[in-house]
């Protein structure tokens, strides 16, 4: 598995609400990417959002970066104008119940 963590800071205070309002569209984008496993949006406080995307391989994760950037540009540019910091790599350890 391959994961991508994106941290968005200094965004609009209501960025989480704006993302939630457009969540169905973004879910469809992710579900259309080969190897999609999971996606999580973390409300890190006013103007701060962290996302975690998990894919079966690097190619899917990299496609999600392109697709996510386009989605933000097309749908959230006013609320999330700053590019995120990105950390990505192979999942070295996982745990499930």
Label this structure with key terms.
97 residues, globular, alpha+beta
Q: Short description, anyone?
A:
The chain has about 100 residues and is an alpha+beta fold. It is about 35% helix and about 30% strand. The protein has 3 helices and 4 strands, in the order E-H-H-E-E-H-E.
Strand proportion, as a percent range, falls in 25-35%
- The coarse overall form would be globular
Question: What oligomeric assembly is this protein in?
Answer: single chain
Give a quick account of the main beta sheet: strands, pairing sense, barrel closure.
4 strands, antiparallel
- The largest sheet has its strands arranged as 2-3-1-4
Number of H- or I-type helical stretches: 3
Overall average residue pLDDT: 90
Radius of gyration: 13 Å
Distance between the termini: 18 Å
Q: Would you list the SSEs in sequence order as H and E?
A: EHHEEHE
Low-confidence stretches: none
Structure description:
- This protein is α+β, with helices and mostly antiparallel strands.
- The chain has helices at 15-21, 23-31, 58-75; strands spanning 2-8, 36-43, 49-55, 85-90.
- Strands 2-3-1-4 form a four-stranded antiparallel sheet, with helices on one face.
- The chain is globular and about 35 Å long.
- The protein starts with a strand and ends in a 7-residue tail after the last strand.
List the helices and strands and how they pair.
Layout: E1 2-8, H1 15-21, H2 23-31, E2 36-43, E3 49-55, H3 58-75, E4 85-90
Antiparallel strand pairs: 1-3, 1-4, 2-3
């Amino acid at each position: 598995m391959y994961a991508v963590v994106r941290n968005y800071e200094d965004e609009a205070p209501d960025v989480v609400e704006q993302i939630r309002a457009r969540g169905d569209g973004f879910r469809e984008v992710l579900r259309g990417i080969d190897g999609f496993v999971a996606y999580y949006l973390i409300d890190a406080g006013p103007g701060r959002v962290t996302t975690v995307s998990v894919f079966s391989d690097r190619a899917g994760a990299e496609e999600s970066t392109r697709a996510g950037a386009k989605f933000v540009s097309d749908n959230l540019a006013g609320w999330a104008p700053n590019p995120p910091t990105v950390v990505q790599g192979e999942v070295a350890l996982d745990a499930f119940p």
